[in-house]
UniProtKB/TrEMBL annotation:
GO terms for biological process: DNA integration. It comes from the Bacteria. This is Transposase. InterPro entries: Integrase_cat-core, RNaseH-like_sf.
Length: 70
């Protein structure tokens, strides 16, 4: 997977020189699909969410609806 990183202008007030804005140039649509699927997996199964008591959404759903399967 070859992703080229392009940093926006560090002088923008919003970015304040940090990596606030990121753009990626993908080589194929499949690369975008793969990266999106990976991100969704991490976001829903591993990343703790503050609004859910610092647990991932899937874990929260299982606690709230233990008999609900997808």
């Amino acid at each position: 997977m070859s992703i080229r990183y392009i940093k926006d202008c560090p002088l923008l007030p919003i970015s304040k020189g940090a990596d606030s804005f990121r753009r990626y140039v993908f080589d194929s649509l499949q690369e975008v699909r793969d990266m999106t699927a990976d991100w969704l997996q991490r976001y829903n199964h591993h990343r703790p969410h503050e609004a859910l008591g610092r647990i991932p959404p899937v874990e929260y759903r299982v606690k709230l609806f233990p008999n609900l399967y997808f």
